[in-house]
Amino acid sequence: MADTDRQYDIVVWGATGVAGRLVAEYLTEQYDPSAVTLAIGGRNETRLKALAADLAEGTEWTDVPIILGDATDPASLRELAASTAVVCTTVGPYTTYGTLLVEACIGAGTDYCDLTGEVNWIRETVDQFHDAAVEAETWIVHSCGFDSVPADIGTALVQSFARETFGVPCDTVRIYVEDGSEGVSGGTLASFGELFETAAEDPVARETLANPYSLAPPGERDGVDPGQQRWPKQDPLRDEWTAPSPMAPVNERIVRRSNALLGYPWGREFRCSEVVPTGRGLRGAATAGAVAGGLGLFSAAMSVGPLRSGIRTYVFPDPGEGPTSEETDQGYFTIRVLGRGTADGNRFTVEAEFGADWGPGYGATARMLGEAGMCLYEDDTDSPLSGGVLTPAAAIGTPLADRLRAVGFTATVSEATGPGV
Ligand SMILES: NC(=O)c1ccc[n+]([C@@H]2O[C@H](COP(=O)([O-])OP(=O)(O)OC[C@H]3O[C@@H](n4cnc5c(N)ncnc54)[C@H](OP(=O)(O)O)[C@@H]3O)[C@@H](O)[C@H]2O)c1
């Protein structure tokens, strides 16, 4: 439970970046100073002051305090962690800038949530800090943005519905990335590049990317699930073709970690996969082939040192560049989660839809991280756990869907019937 006697309730750390600014804007627009005490943090005082002035315009936030520090300076991070109940951090790549903050938060008993999709780094924090975070009863919650809230909370919605309605969980969950539009930031691509860089150098990172259960607790890192789809495939639950999803490596592992952390309520045989649906017939097969081929070529290029550094230098935008608030306001996304189970010998299908009329990676992500921070601060969770290095579903669960629905997201769940399911 968050320590509510701190100077601040929530600090947005990395507020001068593309995602951090949107999180700060969201929280100051959505909540007034009587609901939550906010501060913004980063390393550049001039930019933070300019942001504080912008946040004051048209809101009741006349004076947003600033916290200065550096992600590479442990003393400044300890001070930051001691000043607040919750840190929402967007300082990435997390592989480079995240570890010292996690350590400082556990040391101060400060709850923490982030936007990382860097599986290698999540594995590092699981191995290094999970036991200490449990001991300190501190919540370290990874992947509270588009990676991996829709997949993880969508699966939690499906499984709660299945257990309440049919008395058993679904044994198979498929996550379909159906629709979406928005740009991408330099910060996200820098983190993506860092993932390939680490995989090239570190055998543990390579094992993490190869093993579908690599984010499970030590000793539980195997199971029946073969892991991510790599080729075009006729879908087993819907009458159409599917291609691999670029987010599957993180989202699937986060969902499996949720199941493990919660004590396997979805079963030891539970399987989950995330794909991009591409339609029926020849056209669907050709599109799936093109998506799989493009993704394969890009991954192959990023795996070769000189090509990787060329792409990072000349193709990716610089950190700090990315879609504007206006652009993310025009974006949208839809993720559908289908679960299949068997009750009394009869197959059933449950369907959740998770979506929003904001771009997935920034407009919607800022709201997801902001609301995850509010859940930690207000202790708004259905989790049986009391701390650890956690996932959104294991730490917060369906209350996060309720909060997101209340601020304009779609988060529905029902039994799926009719042709094709
Ligand atoms: N899960 C998702 O769906 C999702 C979506 C969006 C982003 N992300 C992730 O979120 C992270 C941020 O993305 P972004 O596009 O916002 O990146 P960005 O624009 O580059 O912002 C990075 C922030 O980190 C700060 N920073 C960098 N080095 C620092 C240091 N040594 N000490 C203190 N602060 C430091 C920057 O400060 P300055 O302004 O002073 O440079 C900036 O505020 C990335 O890892 C990205 O992959 C994830």
UniProtKB/TrEMBL annotation:
Ranges where the Saccharopine dehydrogenase NADP binding domain occurs: 10-141
InterPro entries (alphabetical): NAD(P)-bd_dom_sf, Saccharopine_DH-like_oxidrdct, Sacchrp_dh_NADP-bd
Organism: Halapricum desulfuricans
One GO BP: glycolipid biosynthetic process
GO cellular component, as recorded: plasma membrane
Feature: compositional bias, Basic and acidic residues: 232-241
Protein name: Saccharopine dehydrogenase
Region called Disordered, residue ranges: 211-245
Organism superkingdom: Archaea
Pfam families named in the record: Sacchrp_dh_NADP
